[in-house]
Design goal:
It contains 19 helices and 16 strands. The chain folds into three domains: about 35 residues, no CATH class; about 260 residues, no CATH class; about 160 residues, no CATH class. It is α+β, with helices and mostly antiparallel strands and about 500 residues long. The N and C termini lie far apart (about 75 Å). The N terminus is likely disordered.
Length: about 500
């Protein structure tokens, strides 16, 4: 009898494998073969090379393309703590990760998957979902890099909260385990089921309430009930973060017209940035951006956008790592003048991953961000789109546009207890696996990860070692500020 060998499995000529069987076998073999190129235990290694780039120099290289007067605010926000430094150090870590082992399995990577870049927001169906929510650095790249950035952020945040070594280890291991076990589950699912998978927050909270209803003894019920109460509080707060809430905070009525408040340098209306004649031209240019950006939306959303009229625009400082990139808030009003829509147009620069994994195939960096977000998120903002516009200096720049707030909320890292951070880390690990499974070979990745905890422990080791490196880099930045090499503006 003739046998046909497929990915190490023998099939008789009268019992030929289906295409699905061939694919499954080959994908599993690909994942297991990747262990030879990058053993799972080696994923835990981190050691700075002798010619490692100066971390402060990497930050300075980013400053060259940013608004000069805002760069000190970025440094000031990063200088608050090792964790805030880490939030702004995506380029530094990408440079470091480029020297670590790779399995060779590629996904649409977030590029900046630290724990504060996960959170809740409203889906198009008006349910509260939990997902990755920052895609400025998204690009096809190694899946391990996102996992390692998430794990390192948990270890660094745990140190900041004063967690013990054992408590931090549990937090990181739980996140890595959640990623591994969820990827194994996703590997058994149909493609459509993977695509439709999402974490509905309301359903998850109901399930959590059922789990917490039973007293585990030793004070566990008291602790977990407190966790749920805090989570409920944060979710209730998220539901108030919409255009109406932002309207009351960011705008005022002057002579019957709604305008953005002036709070420089954090919020600056366009009329205060440039002379009146230039302001009119720039406003018209940004107004034109709104008209043309609409073409990147689905036809029904283009129709919805046309129901609103342009009212005002201001520059707004956002985030930590993003400070200094151009970001505009745009007020749109419905036909009755009391139906606000607040949009944010944010500059999209080249991903920090690009110099290490290759440039994006999208000519427009805004389109890169939007395409990556659609690929990774289970549900995206209905007004998410992109375009290009001329800036104050006449330079043409890429932007992506989205709603400023739509039930958006993130973790309260400053007040997390170990149990809470462990639970949050599991959510992030689950979510990251689902996001990666939409674009990468989930079967091969699951085969690489395997069923043992070898990968989990490697990631735990990496997270702690890299947290040490992050503290050294933070101290280097503090020294650069102290000796006047860079200027930091704190308290903003």
């Amino acid at each position: 009898m003739t046998n046909t060998q497929v990915a190490g499995a023998a099939f008789s000529a009268t019992d030929q494998p289906t295409q699905e069987q061939i694919s499954q076998e080959r994908r599993v073999a690909l994942g297991k073969a990747a262990r030879t190129a990058a053993p799972r235990a080696d994923q835990g290694a981190w050691e700075a090379l002798q010619d490692r780039p100066d971390p402060v120099a990497l930050l300075e290289s980013q400053a060259a393309s940013r608004v000069p007067e805002l760069v000190p605010i970025r440094y000031g926000r990063m200088a608050v703590s090792p964790f805030t430094f880490f939030r702004g150090a995506a380029l530094i870590m990408a440079s470091d990760l480029a020297t670590t082992p790779r399995s060779g399995l590629t996904v649409q990577a977030c590029g900046d998957a630290h724990l504060s870049n996960f959170g809740v927001f409203a889906s198009a169906e008006r349910s509260l979902v939990f997902d990755v929510n920052d895609f400025d650095e998204t690009l096809p790249g190694p899946w391990e890099w996102d996992v390692k950035r998430l794990a390192a952020s948990l270890a660094i945040a745990g140190r900041e909260r004063g967690f013990s070594d054992k408590e931090r280890a549990r937090v990181v291991l739980d996140a890595a385990s959640a990623y591994r076990t969820e990827m194994a589950k996703l590997a058994t699912m149909r493609d459509l089921d993977v695509w439709y998978a999402r974490l509905d927050v309301d359903t998850a909270m109901k399930e959590l309430a059922n789990v917490l209803a039973a007293d585990g003894g030793k004070g566990e019920k008291k602790t977990t009930s407190k966790l749920k109460a805090n989570a409920d509080k944060q979710l209730a707060k998220a539901r108030t973060r919409d255009s109406l809430q932002a309207l009351g905070k960011l705008t005022e009525v002057v002579d019957g017209e709604t305008r953005f408040v002036s709070n420089p340098p954090l919020i600056v209306p366009i009329a205060e940035l440039v002379p009146e004649a230039e302001a009119a031209g720039l406003t018209e240019g940004l107004h034109g951006l709104l008209r043309s950006y609409g073409k990147s939306l689905q036809s029904d959303r283009q129709h919805l956008l046309k129901q609103f009229r342009f009212a005002a625009i201001a520059r707004k400082v956002v985030g930590v790592g993003s400070v200094g990139t151009r970001a505009w808030v745009i007020l749109m009003l419905g036909s009755d003048g009391k139906d606000p829509l607040l949009l944010q147009a944010k500059e999209a620069q080249e991903s920090v991953l690009a110099q290490f994994v290759g440039k994006s195939h999208y000519a427009n960096e805004g389109e890169r961000v939007v395409a990556g977000q659609h690929l990774m998120q289970a549900s995206s903002d209905i007004f998410l789109g992109w375009d290009t516009v001329d800036g104050l200096d006449g330079v043409r720049r890429d932007f992506y546009i989205r709603q400023l707030r739509d039930w958006k909320g993130s973790a309260d890292v400053d007040n997390m207890i170990p149990e809470g951070m462990a639970a949050y880390g599991r959510l992030c690990g689950w979510t990251l696996a689902r996001a990666h499974a939409r674009s990468g070979d989930r079967i091969a990745i699951a085969a690489y990860l395997g069923s043992s905890k070898a990968f989990d422990h490697a990631i735990g080791s990496f997270a702690e070692t890299y947290a040490d490196q992050n503290e050294k880099d933070y101290q280097a930045m503090e020294a650069a500020i102290a000796d006047g090499r860079i200027v930091a503006e704190s308290g903003l």
